[in-house]
Amino acid sequence: MEQNKSDRGKLEKFVSSFGPLIGFILTAAGLIIGVWNFSADQKSKSALEFKRDFWTKQSEIYLRTSQAIGSICAEINKDIDDFDSVKYMTSKTAFESMYWGEINFVKDTEVIAEMKSFDMYIKDFNPKVQDPDYRQQVIDLGNKIITTCRDSYIKSFDNLQVETPHPETAVTPLKKDTAH
């Protein structure tokens, strides 16, 4: 019995001596885990925000590129008497500016390959050539680039991760009562 009292006394002395230290260690561990989770969450949010910004910029660049291509194709599609060389050159300059500049920021390898071919065609385009196949080839290539830009944009959207709420804060929908 005295052995039990002695053991109990040692245990009480140990707990009273190291109890605050154990409490401090548990509190510190909780704080460290909380800071680590917060940091990981912030990194995830920053990465998601970057992806959203990139996707938005890509959207703007692809839209302006498609508008320039559309204007070029609209002029090429006109009869020689209606062809407006000023509009054509303005649109060509806008396309080349995008091709040599901003598109490289968000480029997709498929988009760049198509744009390279189109750039070569419009560089050598002669509005005095009335061959409909020649003109249609440039128009088809322009349409292909626009489609490729759209597909690249959609692929980028699919890669954009949607933020999901934490399980503790997620709200579960109520089931509809179908017994009426």
Measured as a percent range, the helix fraction is over 70%
Tally the beta strands: 0
The largest β sheet comes out as:
none
Radius of gyration: 33 Å
Global morphology: rod-shaped
Mean pLDDT: 78
Oligomer: single chain
Low-pLDDT segments: 163-167, 169-180
Q: What structural category arises from helix and sheet content?
A: mainly alpha
Euclidean distance between termini CA atoms: 71 Å
Query: What percentage of amino acids are in beta strands?
Result: under 5%
Sequence of secondary-structure elements? HHHHH
Number of helices: 5
Question: What this model shows, in words?
Answer:
With about 180 residues, the chain is mainly alpha-helical. It has a domain at about 45-160. The protein is built from five helices and no strands. It has helices at about 1-75, 85-100, 105, 110-125, 130-160. The termini are far apart. The model is unreliable at about 165 and about 170-180 (pLDDT under 50).
Indicate the topology.
Blueprint: H1 2-76, H2 85-100, H3 103-106, H4 109-124, H5 132-159
Helix pairs in contact: 1-2, 1-5, 2-4, 4-5
Offer a concise description of the structure:
It contains five helices and no strands.
Question: Which key phrases capture this entry?
Answer:
rod-shaped, disordered C terminus
